[in-house]
Backbone:
């Protein structure tokens, strides 16, 4: 994967300077712009590794979640809750995984209206291989050591708590 040509200046720093001149200092603008750019960079790196497996990061996360379950299956509602996505997104994700032979679906015996998503043997194999590849490239965060990654996690954790993702 080739890198695009680098600019001779940091465009986010430049935008911050111009912002200050026009509207005053707002450090949160530069911070959010940096976070959004970082998300683009990381998603591109991770998607590059997952694409040969026919996966997106959302599909990969669902496979991982299923491998973490004791039985290899979870209710669709639980997948949405754990991945913090809308039920429609879960249905789309699981249906695509099912079409690829990585997941199957069956009625939930504990909930007459619910559906269980079940990882297949092929799904486990693909998940394991994709995970090995992602770990080899440090999930795109190879510019940081373990301490740097822990700092990133800690800084963003406060935002997630404030958003109500979970109770601290």
Residues:
């Amino acid at each position: 994967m080739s890198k695009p040509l680098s600019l001779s200046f940091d465009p986010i720093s430049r935008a911050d300077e111009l912002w200050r001149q026009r509207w005053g200092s707002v450090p949160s603008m530069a911070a959010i712009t940096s976070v959004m750019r970082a998300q683009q960079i990381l998603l591109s790196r991770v998607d590059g590794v997952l694409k040969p497996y026919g996966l997106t990061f959302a599909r990969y996360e669902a496979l991982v979640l299923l491998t973490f379950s004791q039985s290899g299956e979870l209710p669709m509602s639980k997948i949405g809750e754990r991945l913090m996505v809308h039920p429609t997104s879960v249905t789309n994700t699981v249906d695509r995984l099912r079409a690829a032979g990585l997941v199957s679906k069956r009625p939930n015996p504990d909930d007459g209206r619910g559906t269980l998503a079940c990882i297949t043997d092929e799904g486990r194999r693909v998940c394991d291989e994709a995970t090995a590849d992602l770990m080899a490239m440090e999930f795109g965060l190879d510019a940081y050591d373990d301490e740097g990654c822990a700092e990133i996690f800690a800084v963003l954790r406060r935002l997630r708590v404030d958003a109500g993702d979970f109770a601290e």
User: Anything to note?
Assistant: The beta strands are 73-75, 103-107, 115-119.
